[in-house]
Amino acid sequence: MTNNAARKLTGYSKRELLNKSITSFFTANESSFRKMLRQRNAEGQAVARVKVLKKSGESLTCEITSAVFTDEDGIEKAITTIADISQRILKQKEIDNRKHELVEANIILAKSKQKKIEEKKDKKVAHDIVVAQEKSDARFAENNEWIKHIAKTSYDVMWDWDIVTGEIYVGDSIEEVFGYKVQNNTVYFNHFSHCLIRDEKNVVEKKLWDTLFSDNKSWDDTYMFRRCDGSVASTTSRASIVRDEQGKAIRLIGAIQDVSKLQELEKKLKENSNEKDNSEILLKASHLSFEGIWHWNLVTNEFFLSDRFEELFGYGTNHNAGDMAADWVNYFHPDDKEAITKGINDAIASPVMYWENTCRFIKADGSIAKVFNRATIIRNKDGKASRIIGVMHDISWQMEKKAAAEPTYDKKPVLIEKIKNIIVNLVHHSDDQLQMNFSDYLSKELHYDYTYLSNLFSEAEGIPIRKFIIAQKIERVKELIIAGELTLTQIALKLHYSSIAHLSNQFKKVTGLTPSYFKQQH
């Protein structure tokens, strides 16, 4: 059967249309239509974009929609519609071209403006440097750089975000630092988002999600964070990203620090730089940090350690003096000593301004901590290193959480068995839950990313999870047909098939039989 719209679109008469084969309407090698038919037969309905040949020989880009249904006599039929979208595509192309031209024009204009801005900035920066060198001594420059470094490398509240479940574990110190009382140490991403100020919210969230969808292994950012009492804190965050075998981010483990006091101290130092002694400044900065801070004067070979260092690692500070400079390397794990010594000596000899290192550090009680060192190398006007100011951060907790987030080989068979049990239970014993999204449910129940679970299952069983689910549903259909208490329509509704045709097609694909024939055999 055909209608006037189809005849008008193709240019054929009713008789010509009815006498033509379906495939003769499409251009040679048209695969979209065949793909659409396969999808329709499997799922009951499908949509595709194809090239249709008119009687005149002209081809049109059309959108074809087809659905299968069963009439009152139980006969499967299909209804197919074709819509000419060539004009729509042409208009969209014109819109895209105009947008592209506008974007190019804006880029040229923006580059021109940016060049002028950068030229003005370069002149201003050059002038400011000269003025700063005339007005400030070397000690002020070192102090200023030191305070900024502390703000970047010190953290207060530890947190662990399970991206799959959405749950964020936060340390107890969140109440002390930001005033929030958290039940069971658990919050969700929307709670974090609510604490961002309106002017920064979109920017912070975009940077976070862009990082998660990239292949980066870490995320860091600085932003304003609303405290429980309504006041706003300046904060900085740093986190490690745990990814599954496909590279998808499944966990974020890190910390956030309120650096408001550090910024206040930096401001006071700028106002009173000539009145502050270097040792006093370092002492104040160390009290504001929750990390092990150290300061190595390369000229005098003096070594400064903060009080926090003793609390973290157990070694006394000896009133910020002693033999720590000579013995420093002996506190590191024997397997790491050579690399650390070479790394820091190379950094001192080179023109670099920073040094970073992750290694094992032996605590006073003999236990071993995984630590992250980050230091600023301060140089004189000739570029020679004069001192190193650093922060040692104990990341043992983060590394343990990261390791716990990744399943071991021994756990994989158990995990596969759990996947099977959950699916069997849902299909055979929990009809009301069959309408849920299986991938989301499995991820939530097993606390793993679905892509990881799917690949693990396919590798072990030789079939994807999706096919295992279909096989279990067909087994359930067989049980219900044999029981004889429900019609095929009722079975389709019970197991949440989109239609009887969908159920019948899937049943035949798996068993090679139609549901009706299977019922006759049993």
TrEMBL record:
Keyword Translocase included in the entry's annotation: no
Q: Which UniProt keyword terms apply here? A: Kinase, Phosphoprotein, Transcription, Transcription regulation, Transferase
- List each copy of the PAC domain by range: 219-271, 355-407
Molecular function as annotated in GO? DNA-binding transcription factor activity; protein histidine kinase activity; sequence-specific DNA binding
Q: Please report the stretch or stretches of sequence annotated as the PAS domain.
A: 1-45, 304-351
EC number of this enzyme: 2.7.13.3
- Entry-linked InterPro entries: Homeodomain-like_sf, HTH_AraC, PAC, PAS, PAS-assoc_C, PAS-like_dom_sf, PAS_fold_3, Sensor_kinase/Photoreceptor
Every copy of the HTH araC/xylS-type domain together lies at 417-521
Record has Metal-binding as a keyword: no
Against Pfam families, the record matches this protein to: HTH_18, PAS_3, PAS_9
Q: What is this protein called?
A: histidine kinase
Q: Which organism is it from?
A: Hanamia caeni
